[in-house]
Amino acid sequence: MDMDSSLPSAYEVTTHPGIQSLKPYVPGKAIEELAREQGLTDIIKLASNENPLGCSPLAKKALDQMTVHQLALYPSPLNHPLYDKLAAQLGIDRRHVILSNGSDFLFWYLLTVLALGQDKCMVTHQFAFSTYAIQAQTLGIPFITIPVDKNYGIDIDAMLMTCQKHAVAVVFIANPNNPTGVLTSKADILRLLEGLPRTTVLVLDEAYHEYAYPQGDSYSLELQRRFPNLVLTRTFSKIYGLAGLRLGYAIADPAIIELLLRVQLPFTVNQPALVAAYAALDDFAFLERTIVLNRMGLAQMREGLDTLGVNYFSSHTNFLTIDCGRSSIPVYEQLLSQGIIVRPLIPYGLMSHLRVTIGTEAQNERFLKQFKRIIQD
Amino acid sequence: MDMDSSLPSAYEVTTHPGIQSLKPYVPGKAIEELAREQGLTDIIKLASNENPLGCSPLAKKALDQMTVHQLALYPSPLNHPLYDKLAAQLGIDRRHVILSNGSDFLFWYLLTVLALGQDKCMVTHQFAFSTYAIQAQTLGIPFITIPVDKNYGIDIDAMLMTCQKHAVAVVFIANPNNPTGVLTSKADILRLLEGLPRTTVLVLDEAYHEYAYPQGDSYSLELQRRFPNLVLTRTFSKIYGLAGLRLGYAIADPAIIELLLRVQLPFTVNQPALVAAYAALDDFAFLERTIVLNRMGLAQMREGLDTLGVNYFSSHTNFLTIDCGRSSIPVYEQLLSQGIIVRPLIPYGLMSHLRVTIGTEAQNERFLKQFKRIIQD
Known about the structure:
Oligomer: homodimer
Helix content of chain A: 40-55%
Strand order of the largest sheet of chain A: 2-8-7-6-5-3-4
Largest sheet of chain A: 7 strands, mixed
Order of helices and strands of chain A: HHEHHHEHEHEHEHEHHEEHHHEEHEEEH
Structural class of chain A: alpha/beta
Shape of chain A: globular
Number of strands of chain A: 13
Strand content of chain A: 15-25%
Distance between the termini of chain A: 49 Å
C-alpha cells in the first residue's frame, strides 16, 4: 500500500497519486473544544467569517415552523420556490441558477464536468482559497498556481499567458479573495475574460460579494450575460448567516447549469436550508444591520490596528488579514488562551498573518485589547 | 461541442464521455407539484420510502432549541459529540465511523478514493440502486452490472467470477436491496467476502438495515471487524425519519475512513443534521413506534394484495415492490390523479412494477382501495 494509512494483514487498497499526498482536513478550533481544553467559558470565534448577528430572525422563525413531516421528506430543490425567488431577486432567468450544498460542492462539480478525464488543467493563484487546489488534487486534475503581484493582487498577464500555453479547462478566482480580502477590479476581470480562450471557463467565487457591494449588485451579473464562459458562485453562509445550513449557488450559462445538474447528487441541499434561505431573502433589515455592523467593525479594527502600527490587507469583506510582523503561531496561541479563536494562515505560506473575522463591537474591542497586549509584550 | 446542451456562439465546453451520456436527475413528483398540476389538496406520497411518522419528536425539539448563532456557525462534525454517541451505540471505536451528507455522498467518495484514475472498475448488479452506476459514470469509472438470478437475488458466483477476471476496486450491494426489497442472506454475503480478492472492497449499503433487523444489530458489524475490506453504509433518512436533513454514515476500517476524510469536503454535514441525529439516537420509543407501524403496514398491504391476487417481492424494508401484471405507467398515472404518489421502476427495466412505501394504516388503505379499483377496471 503506497500511502500512510494501512489496512491490516493481506488487504490492500490503492488510491491515485493526487490523494496519496493529501492530508485529512484539520478543522479550525471549535468553541466547545477550546472550552474543554482550557477550561474557558467566554469564548469568541473570529476564525471562520461567520455572521456575528447569527442568522435572520425570519429564517429562524421559518425553521421553527417546519413540521416533523417536512423534516422527514427528501428535499426536492428543483421543485422548491426558492429557485424562482432567488432568480427574481437577481433579475435573471432561473435556468441560469443552480443551488448546492455550500459553494464548495459547486467547485467540485465544476471540476468534474469541465476538467475530469480530459487532460485539461485548472488554474488558480497564490493565496487563493485552498479548496480549489485540494479539490483538483482529489480528482486527479493537474493545476497551476500563478504567483500574485507585489501588491498581493492577481497577475492577470501571467494568468492569460498560462491559459494560452496550456489546455486550461477552468480558472478559479475568489473576488474579493479569501484569505486576503483583496478585491480584483472590474477592469482586470474584464481583461481576463476578453483574453481567455473560449474553451476556458472562469469561475468567480463571490462568497463575500455582498460585503464588497453593499449598495446592491455589481457588474458581474452583467458580465455573465456577456461571457457565457463566466460562472459566478455565491453563498448563504456569509452575509445571510446560514453557514450551519450549507447553501450556495452558481449563476452560469444554462448549458453549464445543465451539465452540473447531470452530475449533482439529487438531495444535496437539505430542507431546512431551502426553508431558511427562502425566508432570509425577504429579511432586508437583517442584511442592512449586518452591513452596518460590519462597516463599523472594520473601521473600529482598522483604527485600533493603525494605532498599534500594525499592517493589514485592505479588505472588502467581513474579515481583516493582519500582518503580525512576526511568526503568527505564538500570537494565535496567546489569543486562544484568552478565549479568542482566529485563523493563522500558515497553510497559505503567510507565516506572519492572522485572519480575523469582524465581530460585534464588544468582540472587536476584546480582540484589539488582547492583541495589543500580546504584540507589545 | 459533443453533447446535447450548447453554449452560445464561439464558446466551447467539453466533458468526458461518461457525463456526455448522463441525463439530469428527474426528481419524483413532489406533493406541491402534483397539487398545482391537478388541483388536488389531500395528497399522499408513498414514493420515496420516507417515515410516515415524520421524525422523532426529540429531534424536532432539539432543532427548535438551536439559536440563530448556532445556525450561523460552520458545522464541525469531527468535533461534534454525535460521533462518540453513534459509535458507542454501535459498540465500535469512533475511528471506524465517518458521517456524511446522506449515504449517497459516501458512494461518491468511496469511488473517488478506491477506483478513480486507477484503471479499476466498479461492480454492481441488475436492479441495484441506480445511483452506484450513475456516480461511477460521472467519475468516468467503468462498471460491470451482474444479472440477478431467477429469484431476483444476487448471483454471487457470477459476481465472484467477474472480480477474478477484472481489476475490480469496489463492489456495491444494497442489503436489503432497493428498489426490490430483497434481502441477501448472511451465508451469501460471507461467501462473497471469502471469495473476493483482497484488493477489492465490498460496500454493503444498509439504508434499510433497521427494518430488516428490528431486534437490534445484525451480523454485518461482526463481519466488518473480520473483513477490513468490508464497508457498511447506513442512514438517518429512513427509520430515523430525517431524510430532509441529509445524514448518512459509513462503518469501515480506519485506514479507509482516513482516506475518505482526506477527500470529503469539510462542511458536508449541516448543523441541524448533527443536532437532530444526536437527539434522535435517544428516541427508542420513536424507533419502536416506527417498526411496529411498518410491520403492521406490511401485513396490511400484503393481505390486501393477496386478496387481489397481485404479486410482490418479499420485502425486508419499509416498501413493497408490486408487479402490476401490466405496464405500470397507466396505473401510476391513475393513482396520481387520485392524489397518491408512488414510484414506477421503468428506469430499472422493471416495466410492470411499482414501488410503494408503507404508510400509515389510513394511507395504506387508501392506496389499496384505489389500486384495486384501477387494476379491476
